[in-house]
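Reopening this ticket.

The earlier resolution said the output was attached, but the attachment link was broken on my side. Pasting everything inline this time so it's all in one place.
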Amino acid sequence: MPTPSSPKNISAKQAGSIAKRSPAQRRLDDALLEAAKEDSATVIDHWIKLGANPQAANRHGNTALMVAVRNQNWGAIDVLLPTGDGKRSNKWNETALISGVGNGESNLFARMIDLLLPISDPSHANKWGDTALFVAARSGEPEAIAKLLAVSEPKPVLASGVTLLMAGDPHFGETEEKRQECLRLLLGASDVAAEDNQGLTALMHAVSWRTHGEELFAMLLPHCDPAQVNSKGKTAFDVAMKSREWWAVEALAEHASAESLRKALRKLTPNATPVAYARAEAAGLALSVEKAQSRRGRKSGSKPSAEMLSNGQKPPGTVGESENKRRKPRAL
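Inline output:
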């Protein structure tokens, strides 16, 4: 193992800046980062004693602690934690906590939270506006979600208007028990009828997600109003049609308005969407009948209904036979 001579002491700020590091310091810091990646606790301790700076970062902006966290290297984390800065962020504005709930085996996220939360700011958001809670919400690990919910504001909403139920394309756990527990936690921390800044509800997001959207859709449907019209006059059925998610179109057809169905008819097929196609055809036929009746009514005037005739009532705008007889003929 190479053991370069210890460099003179420099500040963390100077060591974190590649431009200001000496070649010797750079070698020490790079060796420390590599040891963090390899989970070599003894080697990490060795380089720190020689003067390697735990706050130095690699080209991605990750410190040794962040590298160890991303790789779930527990031995390295134990050594680096006392010297780590939980509020430092990389080029994607991710802190160690955000990295810790977004990488590696999700069943270990709760353990990572216990270690990092005391030195972290859980309200910190990354480059895409996600806090650690919103990143964890996609993991399907209820224990991790519950730990971060406990230190977050009630019903948190991102600057984009996104709620926890809209947080990306989530995977709600491997077992039915985990799925139901995740759903319970997220429902309790979200408003199912809320819209994000683009006017989309959680159900509308679910019909657009490619990976786990159908799973979340099925879980959300009993708790949502599938016929809800958003601030832009659109429903989940309209979003599903635009996204060409035919499974969602089928599932939402019974909740769609006649107008939405008629508009969708030309894009539907009896093979891909038999339920939606049948309902759309029926809606179109009903409209055609309604228009035909309206045209006939304008041509012939109001006709007496069977009920009116049976009751001896006169249709509006008509006169009795005796009144016709009393009319004087028009003068020529």
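Reporter confirms the inline version is readable. The two ends are 127 Å apart (CA to CA). The CA atoms of residues 70 and 103 lie 6 Å apart.
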